[in-house]
Structure formats: structure tokens, C-alpha cells
């Protein structure tokens, strides 16, 4: 990048929805994605929800010619589902695990098992920090129990970007953020990092109305979820910013429109986002663009802190009730042990309970004890992490208020 | 720091061993630590194993006068035990959780519950990145089952430092690394980050022989653990390096010698480490000191990768055997269900088992199924993380070999 006046960078981002045995027409779609990527020859490809390492390996083999560098992020029980293909060398990768990521007992939502992580560096001679990521899904917008977790993730992601991006020239973030453009998490992430939204900045736009990436025209989307949003919603983003002596301009943003170009099926239940960026070296360093002195930032952080505080209250209540349940189960077990000992010692004239029911009750109490203790430990961790985030936000608010 | 020619920085580091109900004479020792810190007036204090938030709050109140800035890192079930007191403003903090930290079922070792984290920025006008941390303990040196986990932690710590330190002027790391100075983890951390060991660099030294921080003279240390090391061992470190246009020189390193100065009891079962650093601005930027082109570095990374590979083999074996156990338990349950259904349908002439044993066996099978499934999931995550680290190390090795 050093010698060239302008670098034109084409980026492809897609949530691939490639879950083995569950996603419809998975193999066909992965093949289609691979073919398109090979034909189009992007510079950087950020994919999410490639849950099977076999699918990744297949893509890697197919794309070896035009994207010689790639990385798959391993984490969690199932994996992170995140991978990156690049025309430029990937110099280094770093894994950052969010401290909160849903609840292990919400099996139907599954986020906990995936340990979602951002983090990859693709080098373009001068360093370019690129992140591929996915935040916790929103399963019910009206009563969103995961909002505090998603806010903690947005905050940790913002902190991660602030702390790791200082030596980069350009920061790029692409992924399924599971948040609408006006949501507090997006405003927090953008405000606290200074990242710009490619959709809002693009000189030329082509695709679904309002840049939506979850649209009713896509045959795989859940139509009932989109009932309140007849045009669809935008939850997949490409965000960027220049750090040191560079400027970035978004020339073009395109999305697919319910089906892959020239085909009868879409790539995924999400639409793909494709942008073209112009990166140019400036005469003088742009100075610190990290701390955006936006007066609205304090309001956003305050709003986020209030939500995290509400989550903290809920987590404390759950910790308390699971702890109480564990104590009750323990008491029942002790009572049974005392009764059994009493019977053995011949204190009671006859056995007070039939053996089977007595035994069943003991096992039930033991099961409840184990489960409730596990839940108590989990919610204790949740309380610590939410409390820690609240503290960090408070520290930032104080610094923002002290700044002129 | 900008205007001054030299900054003299005094740092105190101690593993406080302050576990409620378990550590001997805890309250007395925490009081003593607080008194000493107040008298001595260090610039930066890095404490580990302050497990009770009450102890932290007590110290915070006591030290508010001379250390107006402090931070306690919340994480895990119990907490991280890490805190920082500073004479200079703490600008920002970041939490990084290691992806592996022991086994949840090794209750007697407890590391898993603590989620150890480094990460704190103490600002000295120009940024100073300071980290307080503790790595996974070594419980048995000869047959060290935790070595791969500790190596993953050392690696992640090194990566974390490389990625976050670029905008800092000076990086400081203090803590209980649970590794001897010649161990592969320490060599990896130092080699890959370029951090220098204050003990090796100090112009003036005073304290236990060889800078040991776990010594037989300390009345709280476990004497049997120290039998093979009659002089003691050094596992608490202060490491540092200058990043941009600064130089750092270690003027002095002191350790306590089995008891607190002028008292009859020690601060902790570990000795405190105190250093005085001289930080000076250079005329020209020192250039990139991150990638140390040490030819021995490739050997260290190879050695570490071999150990991580051995850990990966072991984790795969454990994943396989726990998976097999879960399948066997499931088969037994299915068999029992079939037998019970058969009896209900009147297929058998009489009941083949006494009800109680039948019921007990079913519960046992269920218990084994739940436990084995949990273990299988845990070891699956372990395999993913070890495999990911092995991959990262390979990427680095390739880059090291390609470099001239």
C-alpha cells in the first residue's frame, strides 16, 4: 500500500446459514457460494455460520487459486462458524471470546455452544485489521432476554477494536451483528470506535431497499419473523474506518436480492453484502480518530449502561432463586438421610415410606441440587461479567464528562 | 511523561494468597499489605489472589489517598482475584479471558472457576500498558497435566500483548506466571513479545537468592513442594519493554525474604517483587521492537507446539472415551426402557428384576449419561482450542522461516 496512491478493495460478507442436517439445500448453496467467489475475485471474503469444517475445507480447496490465504476460527463446542478468505497474506490471527454468550440451557438457541469470536488480521502490506463476526441472535424483539448479553458483546467488541486497532491503517468489520441500524448496540459500537457504516456512506447503492439483508423475497427466511417489517431488516453490516495517515471512501455497496445472481436459489437465508472501498494515503497523519468526541456518545453509553444494569438485576434474581432451590434440595436430602438413618437405627417402629418412592424422591432431590447448583454458578458468572461491564462503562462515562 | 526527561516508576507486585476461610491469617496480612503500600507510596501496585471483593474494597478505602485510581477485574464464578492500584489515572481496562483454564471437574485445583485474566491500562499521560495476571498453577511438576493449558495461556497472553501494545510507550507485566524462568512457556512469552525480565536486567538486586518468590523461609509455603528446590523457585515476575520512542532501564529489583519488612509474618506465601524502572524518551523512534528476529524463537515455538500437540492428543483420547461412555450409558437406558415396556405389555411372564434395583440402575445410567455428555462437550471445546493454538503457532513458524 505504501507506494500506491489508491487501493481499491472489494469485500464480500455473508452469513452462510450452513448448519449440517438442519439448513436447507446446504451443499448446493455452499457450492454456489464457492463458484461465485471464484468468478468474482474479491479481495477479502468474510463468512459466518460455516459450521462444518468440511464445508470450510471444500471452499479452501476450491478457492486456493484466487484466495491463497484463509483462516477458520475454532472455538466453543461446535465451532465459531467464522472464516476468512483473502487475496493478501493473513499475517496473524487473534481470538477474542465474549465473556457472555447466552445460556447453556437454552439448547434451542444454541448460541452458547458456539463461542462467537471476532478477530483476524489480513495484511495488505501495510496492516489492515479485518474482523469477521457474529453477535448473539435476537430471538424475540419485543421481549428480548438477550439484549444485555448482546450489549456486553457490542461493548467488548468495541473495546477489542479500540485496543487492537492502533497500529493498523484501516479497520474493517463485517458480519451479522443481529441488531437493527438504530439499536443501542450498533450506536454504541459505532460511537465508541468511530467505525462508519458502509451502507450510509456508499456513493452508489444497489440491492434490497434500505440495504436490508433479511428480506421476505428470500425463500429461506422465516416469514412470521418479518411480519412487522414488510421491507425486511438490515442486520448484516460492513463497517470501516481509517486509523493513521489513510482515508477510506466507500464507492459502492451491493446486496443480493433474495436470490443469487442468475440463479433460482439464494446463497443463504441472509443476503450477501458486497462493498468496494477506496483507500488512499494522506499527506499528514489524520491524528487520533479513536476517541470520537461526539456529545451524543455519553447518552448512548448511558442508555447501554441502563440496559446492562437491568440485565444485572435479572441475573441477580436468577442467581438468588437458583441458590434458594439448591438449598431447598439440600435440606430435603438431609431430611431423607436423617429419616433413613433413623430407620436403620431402629428408632421408627416401621418404615415410614415405601422404599421405591423414598429412593425416587432422593434421586429427584439430588438431580435438582446438581442442576440448581450449576445454574447458580452460571448466574454468578453472569452477574460478575455484567457488573464488570457496568463498571467499565461508568469509567468511560466519567472520562467523557471530564473531557472538555 | 512528554515534558520530563526521565520518569522513575516504582512498581509493587504480589500474589496475596487471600482466600476467605482458607488462607491463614488473611485479614492480618491484608491489613499489613495495605499499611506497607500506604507507607511506601509506589506508583503502581499489581496484586493477585485478592479473591474477596471485600478485601479489595477495604484496600481501596485505605489506599485512596496515595493511590487514587484502582480497578478490580471481575470474572469467572469466584472472580479473577486481580486488582491494580495506581498513582496515575487508569484510562481504560480490557478483559481477556483465556480460552482454556483447567478442568471444571478438578474441584480441588479450582483454577477453572476463576477465569484468570490480564488486562489493565494505567495511563501516565502517554500510555503505559500494564497487565496484572496469573496463569494456571502447576500442581505436579513431574507429571504436569496442565502444561498444554498453560502454554495456550502463555501464547494467548503473548498474542494479546502483541496486538494491544502497539500504541503504548511502555508495556509492563507483573504477576504469578506459575512457571520457572527456564520453562518453555516463559521463553515463549518473552521471545514472542520481546519482554525483558526485570530480575535479569536489574542493576541492583536485593532479596532472596536467584530472585526466588516461593522460598522455604516463608512460614506459609508448602515445604514438601519445595523439597527438590532447596533455595526456592522464582514464579513471580515483572517483565517490561519500551515500544515507541522510549527506553526503559531497570535500576533495582527487591524481593521480601520470607517475612514482611520489620514484621514477624510474611505478606503472603509468595514473596513480593518491587522494581524501580527509569523511563526515558529517546531522540528518534526505536522502530518495531515487536517482532524479535531471534533465531532461537523458532525453536521455542516449535517446542511449545510439540507440547500443545501432545495435549491435543490427550484431549482427543479423553473426548473419545467420554463419548464412548455416554453411548454405553444411553444403550443401557434404552435396553432398560425396552425391558420395562416389555413387562408393561405383559410379554414377560414375571418381572425380571426387583423394582428398586431396576430403578437404581436406570438412575445410575442417567447420571453417567449426563456426566459423560458434559465431559464430552468440554473435551470437544478443549480439542478445538488446542487445535486452534497449534494452527496459530504453525502460521507464526511459517512466517519466521520465511523471514530472512
TrEMBL record, chains A, B:
GO biological process: sphingolipid metabolic process
Highest taxon, organism lineage: Eukaryota
Alphabetic keyword roster: Hydrolase, Lipid metabolism, Magnesium, Membrane, Metal-binding, Sphingolipid metabolism, Transmembrane, Transmembrane helix
Subcellular compartments: Membrane
Membrane topology: Multi-pass membrane protein
EC number: 3.1.4.12
Pathway assigned in UniProt: Sphingolipid metabolism; Lipid metabolism; sphingolipid metabolism
Pfam families the UniProt entry points to: Exo_endo_phos
GO cellular component, one term: membrane
Ranges of residues in domain Endonuclease/exonuclease/phosphatase: 15-270
Residue ranges of the TM segments: 326-349, 355-378
GO molecular function: metal ion binding; sphingomyelin phosphodiesterase activity
InterPro entries tied to this protein: Endo/exonu/phosph_ase_sf, Endo/exonuclease/phosphatase, Sph/SMPD2-like
Family statement drawn from the similarity comment of this UniProt entry: Belongs to the neutral sphingomyelinase family.
Protein name as catalogued: sphingomyelin phosphodiesterase
Source organism (scientific name): Vidua macroura (Pin-tailed whydah)
